[in-house]
């Protein structure tokens, strides 16, 4: 694979910088996930994409490649969707409420799968809190499926769902900054669309990118403003405010599909309203 050609395209000066076609991005990101890119080129490509800012075509290509490399779980039967919560950061000055949200949803009869990393980089990670509350990390896909089937809640480390993605996320400690992998990690779906994803955003670029992926793919998202030290007030929203769309609706305690699943412009936040009424707090991802 001509990684040098890709680098020349995305690492030019600002006025000459190009972008990868979706199929090129899918090929390149797939190779990264498969461990097929030499370390020098891997670091250069991740930093170049970060500095340039990923185009929608590049994101969609990377999203497609990642989707093909996420291990599958079987959705629970019935009309209730499983809620997916990706937790890839932590909090320093604010309480981490993600585990509370997950447990409240489970109490309401909604199955929940929380996925993320085990390390915290100096923050209070959801994995630590869940462990103290008796929700231990699942070491295998079989354990994750069993936990969902019997307990209706599971914490699944990224390495179990997508080992290649976990390897890319771990490079943050060496590169010093997040990469495309960190944005896409929150969007993974081991249920092949039979889920409702709760996705956090902390800055204008990640918020816009997440919205574009959702609209292009008609995936089921709720986008929440990240409620922690990194919140960017220039977004114009309150920290913790739910500002984007879901194409799932809440009927009683069940999350079901509306009649027009493809209408990704429906403005609705019933799930988060339901949570707010039960626990009286904002969402943190």
How many extended strands?
7
Q: What's the CATH architecture name of the largest domain?
A: 3-Layer(aba) Sandwich
Task: Report the C-alpha radius of gyration, rounded.
Answer: 18 Å
Sheet/helix structural class = alpha/beta
What's the CATH C level of the largest domain?
Answer: Alpha Beta
Specify the CATH homologous superfamily of the largest domain: Nucleoside phosphorylase/phosphoribosyltransferase catalytic domain
Strand order in space, largest sheet:
3-2-1-4-5
CATH fold call of the largest domain: Pyrimidine Nucleoside Phosphorylase, Chain A, domain 2
**Strand fraction:** 5-15%
Envelope shape: globular
Order of helices and strands: HHHHEHEHHEHHHHEHEEEH
**pLDDT averaged residue by residue:** 75
Low-confidence stretches: 223-271, 278-285
Number of domains: 2
Q: Alpha-carbon distance between the termini?
A: 36 Å
Record keyword descriptors for this entry.
alpha/beta; five-stranded parallel β-sheet; Pyrimidine Nucleoside Phosphorylase, Chain A, domain 2; Transferase, Pyrimidine Nucleoside Phosphorylase, Chain A, domain 3; 285 residues
């Amino acid at each position: 694979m001509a990684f040098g050609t890709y680098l020349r395209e995305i690492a030019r000066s600002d006025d000459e910088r190009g972008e990868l076609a979706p199929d090129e991005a899918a090929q390149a990101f797939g190779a990264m996930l498969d461990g097929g890119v030499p370390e020098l080129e891997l670091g250069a490509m991740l930093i170049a994409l970060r500095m340039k800012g990923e185009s929608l075509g590049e994101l969609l290509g990377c999203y497609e490649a990642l989707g093909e490399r996420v291990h599958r779980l079987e959705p629970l039967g019935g009309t209730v969707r499983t809620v997916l919560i990706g937790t890839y950061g932590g909090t320093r000055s604010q309480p981490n409420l993600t585990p509370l949200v997950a447990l409240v949803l489970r109490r309401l009869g909604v199955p929940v799968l929380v996925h993320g990393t085990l390390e915290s980089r100096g923050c209070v990670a959801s994995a630590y809190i869940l462990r103290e509350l008796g929700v231990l990390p699942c070491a295998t896909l079989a354990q994750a499926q069993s936990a969902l089937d019997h307990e209706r809640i599971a914490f699944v480390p990224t390495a179990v769902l997508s080992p290649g993605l976990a390897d890319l996320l771990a490079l943050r400690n060496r590169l010093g900054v997040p990469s495309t992998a960190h944005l896409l990690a929150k969007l993974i779906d081991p249920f092949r669309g039979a889920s409702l994803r709760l996705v956090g955003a902390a800055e204008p670029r990640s918020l816009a990118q997440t919205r574009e992926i959702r609209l292009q793919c008609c995936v089921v998202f709720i986008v929440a403003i990240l409620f922690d030290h990194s919140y960017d007030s220039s977004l114009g929203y309150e920290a913790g405010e739910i500002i984007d769309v879901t194409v799932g609706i809440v009927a009683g305690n069940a999350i079901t599909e509306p009649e027009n699943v493809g209408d990704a412009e429906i403005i609705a936040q019933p799930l988060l309203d339901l949570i707010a009424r039960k626990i009286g707090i904002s969402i943190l991802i």
